[in-house]
Amino acid sequence: MYLCNPSVVPEKFTHITGGAVTLNKHVIIGSGTVILPKVTIGEGSAVGALSLVNKSLDPWGIFFGCPVKRIKNRSRHLLKLEAELNERIAQTNNCEPNKPQYLTLPSTGEQASKVRIRAVAL
């Protein structure tokens, strides 16, 4: 049941649709953007502020509007920078890329805990 003014409206009359919203890796969403249910935003997509996303978006695009429209393609140079950063992290930590590493945290009188970290993004 949902309240609408002083009366109560049964659910079958509200027509509310729910569903998952999936944001893939390297997605940017501008402030005030509304994303409707059952939508997937593809990897690397950017959505401008105050946009309405009412359908799933293709990867590596720049979108804007109400409803959103593809403005242009987004550069994939970010992927090269990410790979370089992950390689640098792996070299700094003397570990293999994509292999989980363990970091021992200082204890506060209790047994030190181990936290699983990755040298590269998943």
Account of the 3D structure:
With 122 residues, the protein is an alpha/beta fold. It has two domains: 2-73, Hexapeptide repeat proteins (UDP N-Acetylglucosamine Acyltransferase, domain 1, 3 Solenoid), CATH 2.160.10.10; 77-117, no CATH class. The protein has one helix and twelve strands. The strands form five sheets. It has a four-stranded mixed sheet, with no helix packed on it. The longest helix has 16 residues, at 77-92. The radius of gyration is 22 Å and the shape is elongated. The model is unreliable at 108-122 (pLDDT under 50).
Can you give me a brief rundown of this structure?
The protein has 122 residues and is α/β, with parallel strands linked by helices. The chain has one helix spanning 77-92, and strands spanning 2-4, 7-9, 21-23, 28-29, 34-35, 39-41, 46-47, 52-53, 61-65, 68-73, 101-104, 114-117.
Quaternary structure annotation: single chain
Name the CATH superfamily classification of the largest domain: Hexapeptide repeat proteins
Helix content: 10-25%
Sheet with the most strands: spatial strand order: 4-7-9-10
Cα separation of the termini: 41 Å
The largest β sheet comes out as: 4 strands, mixed
The general outline is elongated
Count up the helices. Answer: 1
Gyration radius, in Å: 22 Å
CATH class of the largest domain: Mainly Beta
Structural class: alpha/beta
Order of SSEs, N→C?
A: EEEEEEEEEEHEE
Number of strands: 12
Q: How much of the polypeptide forms β-strand, as a percent range?
A: 25-35%
